[in-house]
Each structure stands twice: as structure tokens, then as C-alpha cells.
Design brief:
disordered N terminus; 363 residues; 6-stranded parallel beta sheet; Rossmann fold; 12 helices
Length: 363
Amino acid sequence: MYFLIYLVKKVDILKNEEIKKILIIRLSALGDTIHTLPLAYALRQQYPDCQIDWIVEDKAQKFVVNNPLLNNVYVLNKKSSSKLQFLCEFIRIIKKIRNEKYDIVIDTQQLLKSAVIMGLSGGKRKIMLDGGREFSFLFANEIIKTGRKPFDINYHVVNRNLDIAKYLDCTNQEAKFIIPDFSFEYSQNIKDIIENLDKTKKTIVLAPATTWDNKHWNVNGWVDIINEFKEECNIIITASEKEKVLTDKILSFVLKSDSIINLTGKTSLADLVYIYKNVNLVVSPDSGSTHIAWAAEKAYVITLFFATSAKRTAPFGDKYFYISSACPCSPCMSKHCKLKTNKNNCINKIKSEDVVNIIKKVL
């Protein structure tokens, strides 16, 4: 009992101290990293002179490195040639973090790997939301009580991150995305393609690829969209090189047209930002493309949801639309379909005409 009273008093004392340095821990997943940017924005608005830093893994670093909201970014390189090399790099970064003597360290990931960093950080106030997994809560000395689970399918992850901003007395809790200036990274080839589009037509980007099989739409849906709009719109297909099988399959059912531009394997993340800032509409399943397009804040976005929850991760605002699968088991929030028959049937439960109707409405 006395120990608990001591902890409460200690936290109260810390809350009254001036905040000079904050560290945000959000290590992985590009979309989740983008969803955490509004927290950084809120902190920067409330504490303009504060040093705000971030630790991230190499795969998700693109939208935090050189971000004007942040002073420093620590990048954990998981592509290190050996486990020993990674361990040495990890120790080096932890030493840097400890030397900074952060007033606040915020773990937005709430997993063991992120919580260990928080525990080793030497920060005075180690903050996370309730519901941390893998015993991550043991490494915090302040847990924000929300009464919600981390994967509450009815509560948006951006709002969950902004609950931390509210706890830290941030008056601006706008879902505002500030991203780095990528202009020096845009490839000339992509800029030329966009510049040479038929300006008398609207431009639609179809980004059909994502990570989970049960987050993809069926091929026929994409074919229907292309056939419906290929005469009146410019249509750009984007995907990574490893998704070439998917985009080739889609295009194999479509007659060739000069209005269809296949950029599969030809774009960097910076190029995608440039594209999304210069087109009218992006259609995608729940994926990194959706979140990048939302962060770019230019194009209309239509997001298709199957295994995952629209209320948790869909872009929100007047320019953003979503359609959820009518499958009874959606959203299951599982990477692998658990049905014994009709596996991944949810990907067939969004009608192409429903997507067409929204496209016609916004264009």
C-alpha cells in the first residue's frame, strides 16, 4: 500500500515539472506510423519549444525521418547483417536515448519490444494507454485509463493516439498529418507521366494490393471499375513489384487502352506521395496506400474493408469514403480466414456498382 502511495505521489510531482523533452515510440507498420503523426502534431502545437523525438524501425521510417514535427529520429535497422550487429546497434541507440534524459517517453505500440525500449529509456514519465499486450504495461509508470481495448473495432486508432494528447493537456486534438518534404525524391519519370496525363479527364488511382489475403478485393471488382471508367478517366495502377502477379491478372481481363497506366514496381513511397497529391481519386483496400493518400490530403479516397474494421482504420473526413464487406464474420481482424469452407469469402461481398456509384458522386 505504501509503495502504491509513493508511486502516485511521484507521478503527481513529475506532472508538475516542465516538459522539455518527449520521446515517441512507434516502431513498425507504415500505416500505424502515419496514424501516430497527429499525436506528434498535437504535442508540437502544445509544446512548440519542446524537443520531440521518435524511435522507429527502418521499414516504417519514411514519414518520420526529416519530418518538421520532430527534432531527432532514431532508426532501428532490422535489416542488419547479423543478430549481433543489430544488438550492437540497439545498445548504441539506447545509450543515446538515456543520455537525453527524456521527461516523457510515450509507447504507442504497446508491445513487449516497444515497452522494453521505454523501460530502458531512463525517461521520467513512461506513458502508455491501458490494454497493452505482452505484459508491456509493466514497463510504464503512467497508464492512461480509457476503458477501451487496443483493438477496439469501433474506435479509431488515430483517436486512440489522440487520447494521449488529451491526457498531456494538448488543446489541439485535430487529426492533422504533417509529412516530410519528398520533392527532392520524386523521380523524373513519374513526374513526366503525371504531367503528360490528359488534363481534360479526371485521374483515378487503383492501388489493389495489400498485405493480407483477406484484405484484397476480388479481381473482377477491379476489372469492373477499369472497364467503367477507362474511356472517361485516366487510370493509374500502383503496386509493388512483388504484387505484379495481381496487377497482371487484373489487366489481363481488360482491353488495352492509352488511358490505363500500369506503374507496378515503378514507384517509391515518395513517388506515391507525388501521385496522390496530383490525382483526383484513390481506390484501395485497407492498406498503406490508403493511409499515404490520407496523409497527402489532396485526393478523394475510397477504402474497401473486408477482414479489418473501417471504424478503426478508415480515413475520416469529407473527402474520404469506405465500404465494408457484408460478410457476417467481417471484420474478423485476423490475418488468416478461420472458416473451414468458403475461405476469404468476404472479399466477394463488396459490389462493384457500389464503388462505381461513389466514384461518380465525387468525380
